[in-house]
Design goal:
CATH architecture of the largest domain: 3-Layer(aba) Sandwich
Helix content: 40-55%
Shape: globular
Strand order of the largest sheet: 7-4-3-8-9
Oligomer: single chain
Largest sheet: 5 strands, parallel
Length: about 500
C-alpha cells in the first residue's frame, strides 16, 4: 500500500483541528482534564499502551479526572520532557497493521514534572494524585540475582541511605513523598508497575519497603501496611523511534512530531483490582481486571518475552536485522515453535480457558508482522537483566520438575556466542548491557572453558552448578565455536524431529 506524501504540520493543540480526517484526534478538551496519575518513565511503551487506554477512556467522556502527569529522573527523561513540552504533551501513535496504517493523536498526558527529585516529590504529594505507575525497565527494581530479594548493597541504594533527605532513586523519591503525605494526613497513592516482571507488584513493593527500612525505618511499616502494589501484565510490541518512524508520521499523515510512537495494533493489559483511592474505569476500553494476575504474567513472560529472547541471539548470529526477516527464516521460525512448545509451555501453569498453543501462534504472527519493523538489536538489549526474567526461570522450573533443558541450554549458548561476537570490534555489533565488559570477558573465556560464562552468579545464581544444564550448555557452545550458528540450529531441529 502506498501513501501520498503530505505537507507536515507541527503537532500542537492549535494544529489538531487541521490534521484531517486520516488522523484520529481527541474528542475531549484539554481544559476538561485534571490529573490523577503520575507516570514515571515516559518512553515509547507507556505512550503506546497506558496512555492509549486512557485516551480511549477520555474519548468516551469518562473519568476525565485521571489524566497523566509524566515524570522521571534520568537524562533521557529530560530529553523526552523537552520534546513533548514543545508539542503540548501530545503524541502521535502509528499502529502498524500490515493491512493498512492508522494514526491517532493522544492527549491523555497533560503535564510533566520538572526533572529533579524535589519537583517530583512536590508533584507526588498533591492530593489529586491517587496512582503512580512505573515503566522503569526490568533492571530498575534492584533485585539481587542470587536471592531474588532486594539488593540493599547496590551503590544507588546506599547513596540514598547516605543522603536520606535528598533521594535520587525513584524508590527513594516515592518513599519521601509517601512520608510527606502521611505527615499531611493524606492517604497514600497506589503504586502500579507496568514493567515485564513476574509479579511486578510484589517486586515494586519489595524495592519500596526494602529501601524504606534503610532510609526511614519508622515509615517502612506504614508503607508495608497501607500502600497498595497491584500487579499488572502489559503487552504491545513497540519498536524504538528512529528517523523511519518520524518520516512515516511526517510523510504519510502530515504531522511533524518530534517523538512519535509506532507500535503493533495488538494491546493487552491485565491487572489486579486493588486501588484504595479509586481508579479509572479501564474495563470500558478493554483492560481485564482479575483477582490474581500472576498466571497471566507468567504466560506472557515465558512465552512471548521468552520467545523474543529465544529468537534474538541466533537471529543476530545469522545476520538478520529485523524481527520479521528472522521469522521468515524457516530455521528461526521452527526453533521458536519447538523450544517454546516442548520446553516452556509444559511448565507454565494452566489458565482455564486459555490455550497456550494458540497464544504461541498469535505471538509468532505478531513477530512476523513486517509493518512493525522491530529490530533484532532491540531484542538483544540488556540480556543480563532480561535472561534472568524470561529464560532462566524456565530452566530452573524444568530442572525442578525433572524435565529436559537441552533447547533452553542452546538458547543460553547462543547468548554467550553473541556476547563474544560483540567483543570483536570488527563485528560492528555493540553490546548494550550494563554488564557489557563482564559479559564479553566471560564469553571470550568460555571459548576455552564454557563454565566461565555460567560462573557469572549475579546473572545465573546457582543455576550454573546444575549438571544437566551446564553439560548441555557446554556441548552446544563448543559446537557453536566449531560449526557456527546455522549448522548447530539445523542439527538441533533435526534431532528434535527425530524424537517427536
Amino acid at each position: 500500500m502506498t501513501y501520498e506524501a503530505k505537507v507536515a504540520r507541527q503537532l500542537s493543540l492549535k494544529t489538531l483541528p487541521d490534521l484531517g480526517g486520516s488522523v484520529a484526534t481527541p474528542s475531549y478538551s484539554r481544559e476538561d482534564l485534571s490529573p490523577g496519575i503520575v507516570h514515571i518513565g515516559v518512553g515509547n511503551f507507556h505512550r503506546a499502551h497506558q496512555a492509549v487506554y486512557l485516551d480511549r477512556l477520555f474519548n468516551k467522556g469518562l473519568d476525565l479526572d485521571w489524566a497523566l502527569i509524566g515524570a522521571g529522573v534520568k537524562t533521557y527523561d529530560a530529553a523526552m520532557r523537552e520534546r513533548l513540552e514543545a508539542q503540548d504533551w501530545l503524541t502521535t501513535i502509528i499502529e502498524l497493521d500490515p493491512h493498512g496504517l492508522s494514526a491517532r493523536v493522544t492527549g491523555s498526558m497533560i503535564g510533566f514534572s520538572d526533572i529533579n527529585p524535589s519537583a517530583l516529590i512536590k508533584t507526588l504529594i498533591q492530593p489529586e494524585i491517587r496512582i503512580v505507575t512505573l515503566t522503569i525497565t526490568e533492571g530498575g527494581y534492584y533485585v539481587n540475582a542470587k536471592t531474588g530479594g532486594f539488593d540493599a548493597d547496590h551503590a544507588d541504594i546506599q547513596g540514598d541511605v547516605a543522603r536520606t533527605g535528598d533521594p535520587q532513586t525513584i524508590f527513594g523519591i516515592l518513599i519521601a513523598a509517601l512520608g510527606l503525605r502521611k505527615d499531611n494526613g493524606l492517604s497514600p497513592f497506589t503504586i502500579l508497575s507496568c514493567d515485564n516482571l513476574p509479579e511486578n507488584g510484589k517486586v515494586a513493593r519489595q524495592a519500596v519497603v526494602g529501601l524504606a527500612k534503610l532510609m526511614a525505618p519508622d515509615l517502612a511499616g506504614w508503607i508495608e501496611n497501607e500502600v497498595a502494589f497491584p500487579s499488572s501484565m502489559v503487552d504491545c510490541i513497540t519498536p524504538a523511534t528512529s528517523d523511519r518512524e518520524r518520516a512515516l508520521v511526517r510523510d504519510t499523515f502530515g504531522i511533524a512530531d518530534a517523538a512519535p510512537v509506532a507500535c503493533e495494533p495488538f494491546r493487552q493489559w491485565v491487572m489486579e483490582d486493588h486501588f484504595p483511592l479509586g481508579r479509572p474505569r479501564l474495563e470500558e476500553v478493554g483492560v481485564e481486571f482479575v483477582e490474581d494476575v500472576a498466571p497471566y504474567e507468567l504466560m506472557k513472560l515465558r512465552i512471548l518475552n521468552g520467545g523474543h529472547a529465544a529468537i534474538a541471539y541466533p537471529s543476530a548470529l545469522l545476520g538478520h536485522t529485523y524481527v520479521h526477516e528472522a521469522m521468515a527464516d524457516p530455521d528461526i521460525a521452527a526453533w521458536l515453535k519447538d523450544l517454546i512448545s516442548t520446553e516452556v509451555i509444559p511448565i507454565v501453569p494452566v489458565i482455564p480457558g486459555i490455550s497456550f498453543a494458540t497464544y504461541l501462534d498469535t505471538c509468532a504472527e505478531r513477530f512476523a508482522n513486517p509493518a512493525v519493523g522491530d529490530t533484532i538489536a532491540r531484542l538483544c538489549l540488556d540480556g543480563s537483566n532480561r535472561q534472568p526474567k524470561f529464560i532462566l526461570p524456565s530452566i530452573a522450573d524444568a530442572r525442578r520438575a525433572g524435565r529436559p533443558v537441552n533447547g533452553l541450554a542452546l538458547e543460553v549458548a547462543f547468548w554467550c556466542a553473541y556476547c563474544a561476537l560483540t567483543a570483536d570490534e570488527a563485528s560492528g555489533i555493540p553490546l548494550e548491557d550494563e554488564r557489557r565488559d563482564q559479559l564479553q570477558s566471560a564469553a571470550l573465556a568460555a571459548k576455552e572453558d564454557p563454565a566461565a560464562f555460567l560462573s557469572l552468579t549475579d546473572v545465573f545464581g546457582d543455576l550454573g552448578q546444575d549438571q544437566a544444564f551446564s553439560s548441555a550448555f557446554s556441548a552446544h557452545l563448543k559446537a557453536l565455536w566449531q560449526d557456527g550458528a546455522r549448522a548447530v540450529l539445523q542439527r538441533y531441529l533435526s534431532s528434535q524431529s527425530l524424537t517427536s
